[in-house]
Structure formats: structure tokens, C-alpha cells
Amino acid sequence: MPAAAPAVPSRTPSHWERFVAASKSRVRNVQDYFALAGRGLGFIFVRPFYGQDWVQQMDEIGVKSLGIVLLTGFFTGMVLALQSSVQLQTFGATMYIGRLVSASMIRELGPVLAGLMVAGRVGSGIAAQLGSMRVTEQIDALNTLGTDPIKKLVTPRVLAALVMLPVLTIINDFIGILGGNLISSAMVGVPTSLYWRTVWDQIANDGFTLRVIPIDFVQGITKPFVFGGIISITACYFGLNTTGGTEGVGQSTTRTVVVSSILILIIDYFLTQILLSVLGP
Amino acid sequence: MIDDESSDSRTATGKLPSDRRLDGRRMGERTTSGVRAAIRDELATEPADAETNDQPVIQLDHVSLAFDEPVLEDVSFEARKGETLCIVGESGTGKSTALKLILRLLVPEKGSVCIGGKEITGLSFEEALEIRQQMGMVFQGAALFDSMSVFENVAYPLREHTTMNEDEIEQRVREKLQFVDLEPDKVMEQLPAELSGGMRKRVGIARGMANNAEIMLYDEPTSGLDPLTTGTITRLLLKLQRELGVTSVVVSHDIRSVFRMATRIAVLYEHHIVFFGTPEEMAGSDDEYIRTFLGGS
Fold first, then answer.
1. I need a surface site. Which of A189, B73, B218, B273 has the fewest CB within 10 A?
2. CA of A231: how far to CAs of A123, B204, B221, B295, in Å?
3. Chain B, nearest residue to A2 by Cα
4. The whole model's pTM is what?
């Protein structure tokens, strides 16, 4: 047996030491998060391309989220029209209801709601799947079979989310405006033709980028692209770093939904600031 | 530990070309104090028949590793070609960590790890992936990919790292499944969740050897299995060693299986190697810890 190490009197670490250790750990986690994001995105351009996994994830993230996105978009558009009509009636300006609904849906509610819905449905699913793979040693098995788990698991999910979130948002925007149309024509008395004309006025009024792309669309598409990245990378990060068996899988899933939802709402604000200063109001 | 109760394993140990194994029934008839002598007798009747040469295929040299606490300290062992090295010890002594070092899933803080004479500690991530392709790993819970069928699981390393066409892949998968005593037509389309524990382990072995790996690593291959299935898996590991000359490293608690298949045994105790030698030497050891470990004192 080796000689025992000289006894070191054990002492409880001070508050400061604990604070420093916790801070270091947080910084390391952020560093790991960005390292994962860098590698996950970098592998998009590196062979082998797991095309089948990518298509499968597009189905999982995009097609299977369609129902929930359609439902939230439609009802949000309807409630927007309903609430706006009450306010606009005060000024006798109910004809502008289309402008209000479209501006709100395309610039803000479409991307944010689609992001939050996908974070809840897809983010949790990715975290649970990768977390289970971690605790049942399937991630180690991939490594030992000579496959980089980030390339095989993270990259297809990130790529699929980057593509599908904007697509879902466009559908969400359209169905929301359609919901607004239904309420404004059925309950407020704004004709459909006028509603859609005011929708287009709003889109055209804010100007165009490169002469043909409405600025509203640039805002509306940039945001879900960023949100797609946040959701997929956050889910993969917590999933791959799962420890503690099945309980750990549950914790990873919860953290993914909480962190990605908060990040979406915070980054939405700063992104709007940046886009407004770059593209103009 | 050697268990007097598990005498049923005799039915699972009938067809080996060698009798170097310790038969369950005979073990059950002996008292624990006589076990070491019995082991010595059985081992003396038939020496290890693996084709070995002096060149170590796997070599750990004065390896130390710690996370928050020490995991391995100054650990050295080696496995020569065709050898089956078993690493035994109590839980939490760093046995599985040793396998991860061989696979370069972990890098030691001190010392060196050589595979096929090549130092692997300084390799890049991509170079390490290539080294791992020479090895097959069988995990404690088999670690089969849940979302893939048995066929896709075994075919996975072939699809990843070879240019074999579909026919060749299917032929190879069938061959490997047959080698591990599974009926390809029955199991190929099943999902891992539909298989029993023993079958999952066998599919795990088939996947590990699909690439014709020269080195096989096993993490607790017999844990959680009934005595019959334990016997079957142990026999399978011996078959791999004898028919294919594969170099194996087996981490195990199951001392009976270890004595059946090992050409050399390393005993880990509190992060150190306290014994490294042949089963005969272990059976004859007077070291108190080894005697306790064998249940002979």
C-alpha cells in the first residue's frame, strides 16, 4: 500500500472561496456552450455530411411542430384583432386593424411565439434524447466507434433548426394575419379586401432592403434564425452534459426549456435594437 | 466473488475445447478455503493456449489521473497480442477509467498509453477517432443505439468507416450475429428494447467486432446477467480470443469468469495496481488482500 499522504486539517471553504469556485464554474459552462456552438456550426461544412439525420431532424423540428405553431398563430392573430378593434374603435380607426395585426405578427409575435413553442416541444425532446443517450453510454459508444458525437448529433439538429424556425415563423405570421382577418371581417366589420390592403400598406410602408425585400420581413426572418440556433444549441448542450441518471435527464429537459425561453426573450430585445438601428424603423 | 450458490452454470459450460474454466458445479462442491488450490490445479492442467508474442499491443506506463480526487495512481500494465487481460477490483477503483484511457476518451495527467507501440496521449481528437476504429468496445449496458434496429447497430461502424456496399454489409452483419450465437433472420429487424439483457450484450459484442477489430474492450460483460447467460457470454469471449486471436481487456467483478478467460490479471485497489500476473500466480499469491478478494481467507 502507498504511504498515506500527510493529514490536512479539513476546513469549510469560506463564502468568498465558494463564490470564486461557483463563478469559475459558470464561466467554464459559458465557454463550453460557445465551444459547442462553434463546433456544431463548423461541422456543417465538414465531411461526412449526415444528410439522412438532417432530413429526419427537419421533420422532427419542423413538420411535427406545424400543428402547435398553426394553433398558436391563429389564435394569437384573432386575439390581436379583437383587442386592437376595441382600442381603435375609440379613435374610429378600425380600418387600420390589418396594419396593427401584421406589424405585430411579422415583427414580434410570429418569431417569438414560434420560438417559445419550438423551445417547449423540440428543445425538451432533444435534451431528453441526448440526455438518455449520455446516461446509457450511447454517446461514449459513438465516440468509441470513431464518430464525433457533435458532428453526428448536434450539427444535424442545429442545421435543421436554423432552416425550420424561419419556415415555421413565416407560416405562423401568415396564419396569424389570417386569424386577424377572420375576426376583423366577422366581428368588427372590416371588409377582407380592405384588411389585406392595409396589411400590404404596413409591409410596404416600412421600406425595402435591396429594393425588393420588405424590411419587416428581414426583421421577421432574422429573429427565428437566431432563435433556432439558441434552442438547438441549448438543448444539445444540456443533453450532452447530463449526469445523474434518469433524474439528470429530467433536469436537463427543464433547464433547456427555461434557459432557451429566457434567452429568446432577452435576445429578442437586443436583436430588435440592433435591427432597428441598422435597418431603420 | 466465487459463489457456492450458483451451481446451475454447469449447463452453460459444456462445449469448450479447453477445460481451463472453473466449472460451476465443481466450484459449488468445494469449500471456499479449497478454492485457491482448486484454481491452481485446474490452471496447471492446461496452460493458456492463446498465441501471444512479446510485443505489447496495449501498454499503460506509470499512468496517473485525478479529477477532484485521484482515480488512478502510477498504474502500469500491458496486454500482448492475443492475450486476454482482466482488470478486477472493487467498485470505484478506476477499472472503467482504465478502459477510457485505452480508448483515449480520457488523457492521463502523468505517464503514457501506447496502442500497437504508438503513444496515443498526444493525439488530436481526429487522430484518436482513427485509433478507436482498431478497437471494439462492449459497454456494461451494451449501449446499443435505441433508435436503430439490431442490423443498423451492427452495420454502424461499417457504414461509417468502410466503403462496403449494402450486400457486403449485410453479409458481414449476418456473419457477426452468427458468431455471437444469434439468429440473424430473427433479430436483425428488432429494436434493442425488444431484446433480453444477454441478447443485447451479444449484439454489443457483434457491433464491437464488426470492423474486425484487433482489440476488444469489455466493461463488466457479465454484470446483471443470470448464471446461464454469464456462462454463455464468457464462452463467447473465449471463442473470440481463440478463433480470432483478438487481444482483449476485460473489466469485471466476476472472479469466476475472470479465471476462465484471463491470460493475465491486474488487480486494482484504491487506485493502484496491487497485483499483475497470471491466474496461476494470483491463485498462489499469499498477499492478504488477494486472498480476501478470492474469498480464500
1. A189
2. 6, 33, 38, 54
3. B272
4. 0.80
